[in-house]
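Blinded run. Sample ID left blank on purpose so nobody reads anything into the name before looking at the predicted structure. Input follows.
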Amino acid sequence: MKGRVDVLRGVGPLASEHVESCGHAMPRPSAGDAILPIVPARCQLGDIWCTGRHWLIVGDSIDPVTIDAAITLATSEGEISALLWDPLFDDTIPPPAWAASIPYRFVFTNNHYVGAEIANWGAPTHVLVWDTGGVNTKGFDRTRDEPLQSAKFCLYYGPRDAYSANGDTWDRAVLHGQGRRGRAELADTFRLPLSWMPEASRYQKPVDWVRRLIGTLGGPGVVVDPFVGTGTSMIAACQLQRPSVGIEIDPEIADIALSRIETWTGEPATRETTLEMPDITRVIANVQDRHARKRAQAHAMSRMAMRLRI
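Blinded prediction complete.
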């Protein structure tokens, strides 16, 4: 498949020390994690883009028009088997009624919101962790009485007997820990420090982790991600040769996702249609609020970095 590059970029002393302390080789970031330095501005609110069997909707994930379009597109590709749920800033948005019919559900959160998500979704079948090696600075908003956040949690909701170590068919050589060749086993903790992903956005999950989750626990059907962000879950679906549908409210972030998918598949995206959103003013306000929150967080990050240097 196009886009496969076995080159490790941006490894620093901190990452090297982490590898040694773990006692075994850790997964490397794949080419799917890369973000292009120059991304053309193409996406507008309401756009529906298609690349092969992968659909990207630029719209509001809680807007009925957008959701109806996403479900229609997904069912046109086959049976929806996997739902990935990861709202920005770990907002605890209650699960929609339509999610109950999807057999395999993955809810992502951090340590602040685990309790709230369990209250929303119920007790998970499995809890899986992305351990960022202690270099994840997402905990900048913590108080002095709280630990530094260095993990992202995936709450898995689905059949306990659904696990298949042979489900991840993409790259048998990339294994976590001591796995046997020919099996893509899923560990309950995935280690990949953010210091190894200099090109990634701060909220971008490793493609290898998401692909392993979907491949071993997600069933064989269509992947749906209502908060697709920069497109990681769609890249993972590409690698597993499964169709996918993603929704992203921010046109600037959608541009990144679209470019990543095009780069990986080698196919140009086409704008199929544009939705008419009845409440476009509210959607635009949500995008503006998102940008304001991102700027505030970036400012807080800079202040934290200055304190650490002192």
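Unblinding after everyone has recorded impressions. The longest strand covers residues 151-157.
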